[in-house]
Write a structure and sequence with these properties.
It comes from Sesamum angolense. The chain is an alpha+beta fold. It folds into two domains: 237 residues, Transferase(Phosphotransferase) domain 1 (Transferase(Phosphotransferase), domain 1, Orthogonal Bundle); 116 residues, Phosphorylase Kinase, domain 1, CATH 3.30.200.20. It has twelve helices and 15 strands. The protein has a six-stranded mixed beta sheet, sandwiched between helices. It has a three-stranded antiparallel beta sheet with strand order 2-13-15. A two-stranded antiparallel sheet has the order 1-14. The protein is globular, with a radius of gyration of 21 Å.
Length: 364
């Protein structure tokens, strides 16, 4: 999860005015350009779920998106009526994770620690470690900055929504002061590890583009709902990869409803992660789905360049951002390719062409 970057805005209600247009159509436009760029540069045919072939049309997200009535599996007023989720006891999850032992620990974030656990596939009861279905169990830190409010937000949204590019929330535990969440297990870990962890095999270009499209599809699903959900924390560490290298969005603690009716934005406290958060949102506190679009562009730059959004030593140190670094190369293939050949991770001719044509991101 991200951090609070400031609080320039006081109101937490939508502001009326002229809408910025159909967000679903916006994402259809983005995806078409991704598909066309990938196909034109002959990266390969396997660029998205469904094996889109050369010459075929990109998926129509407006006609293929899950209907609101199917996507929202109830909107419980409290956790006691959240029949879509399994209510685990603390003892259940303690048994499933070998008493939260260090050898079951698989990650740590602002929310808390993440442990590998096992449950029965049919009953969802805890099972003996090493048997049954593997799950990820996230346990809230007692001193967590996000706290109970973000835990509730995660349960509310992931408890309602179902999409192939959103991590599935299986259940929760709310017992005494214990707050835990149980998710499907994503065996390939985070996109951040695949991009930046030393010793990890670099991903092929077709895989990187497949992941980019998966992320865009997940965001399009969120933005196209009548509820208009804004993710607010899109970054490489929140994108998880399954066994077939398909990507799913995780960590919805900062998500919230977007503007409704004629509202152009929602005024809210500024939260997120430096380097990924849209500068307009940071400056004004005005939140729109386009704030997620900016973050998507940053992640796409990370996929193409192999550099971190912020703090990479090749970007000028702690204050350097990937966006500022990338602007100098847009439209200049020769300059960018020369810069890339000086780095450990080599850019193929195809990747270089994709990068320098990314000015379409600035036009949508």
């Amino acid at each position: 999860m991200g951090i609070c970057l400031g609080s320039p805005a006081k109101s937490d209600h939508p502001v009326s005015g002229q809408g910025f247009g159909n967000v679903a159509s916006f994402w259809v436009s983005c995806l078409k350009k991704i598909f066309l760029t990938v196909e034109f540069l002959e990266i390969g045919t396997k660029v998205a779920p469904g094996n889109v072939k050369h010459g075929s049309n990109p998926p129509n997200l407006q006609t293929n998106s899950v209907a609101l009535s199917d996507a929202l599996v109830g909107f419980p007023g409290d956790l006691s009526v959240s029949g879509n989720l399994k209510s685990f006891t603390f003892n259940d999850l303690r048994n499933a994770t070998k008493n939260f032992s260090p050898d079951s620990l698989i990650g740590e974030g602002g929310f808390g620690y993440v442990f590998k656990g096992w449950i029965n596939e049919n009953t969802l009861a805890s099972s003996k470690p090493g048997t049954g279905t593997v799950v990820a169990v996230k346990r809230l830190k007692a001193q967590s900055f996000q706290g109970h409010r973000e835990w509730l937000t995660e349960v509310k949204y992931l408890g309602q929504l179902r999409h192939e590019n959103l991590v599935k929330l299986i259940g929760y535990c709310s017992e005494a002061k214990n707050r835990l969440l149980v998710y499907e297990f994503m065996p390939k870990g985070s996109l951040e590890n695949h991009l930046f962890k030393k010793g990890v095999q670099p991903m092929a270009w077709s895989t990187r583009m497949q992941i980019a499209v998966d992320i865009a599809r997940g965001l399009s699903f969120l933005h196209s709902l009548n509820a208009n959900i804004i993710y607010r924390d899109l970054k490489a560490s929140n994108i998880l990869i399954d066994s077939k290298f398909h990507a799913k969005l995780s960590d919805f603690g900062l998500a919230r409803k977007g503007p409704s009716g004629d509202g152009t934005h929602v005024s809210t406290r500024v939260v997120g992660t430096m380097g990924y958060t849209a500068p307009e949102y940071v400056a004004s506190g005005h939140l729109t789905p386009k704030s997620d679009v900016y973050s998507f562009g940053v992640v796409l730059l990370e996929l193409l360049s192999g550099r971190r959004a912020m703090g990479d030593e090749t970007l000028g140190g702690a204050e350097g951002t990937l966006v500022d670094w990338a602007k100098q190369f847009l439209g200049d293939a020769g300059n960018f390719q020369e810069s890339w050949t000086q780095d450990n991770l080599k850019l193929s001719r195809t990747g270089c062409k994709i990068f320098v044509h990314m000015d379409w991101l600035l036009e949508v």
